[in-house]
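The instructor's notes for this session suggest beginning with a concrete chain rather than abstract definitions. Hand out the sequence below and ask the class to guess, before any prediction is shown, which regions might be ordered.
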Amino acid sequence: VVCGASPVAIAVADLGRRLGYRIVAAALAGDLVAFAEEDQRVTGFDLAVVGVEADDFVVVATQGRRDREALAAALGTPARYVAFVGSRRKAEVLKAQLAELGLTAARIARLKAPAGLDIHGIEPEEIALSILAEIVARRRAAVTQDVTDVVEGTPRSCCG
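After discussion, reveal the predicted structure:
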């Protein structure tokens, strides 16, 4: 699920689709035209209509356009990965606001911010690559392997 229609959101949806993920775009009504026709589209950020499950991934890339609303909706799902595209400072402010709205500390702690692996990406496509790399790492990590090894920089060889 991609919340927002920022350049990063569009790039995440595009790359995710190329990697074989089913894309659900949740954005303000006028922004949904930015997404591909094959994507499922949801007006607004009511993710209850999407049916997000525990194996799903949610990326909030709203860039100041209803960040708090999108984050509250994303953290209200059982998704295994909820990430926010934005600075650490902005994420901390939003976390405090979400707590004031009544979200539990446990729900807020699930938020990965900033989203993606630290590959020093600047362009929207580079940021999208870092996010999808992190999603792939989490998805493919063996049950017994500590996923933090994968997403926090401990290199793993593909062949042992």
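Then share the key points. Residues 72 and 103 are 8 Å apart (CA to CA). Confidence is low (pLDDT under 50) at residues 154-160.
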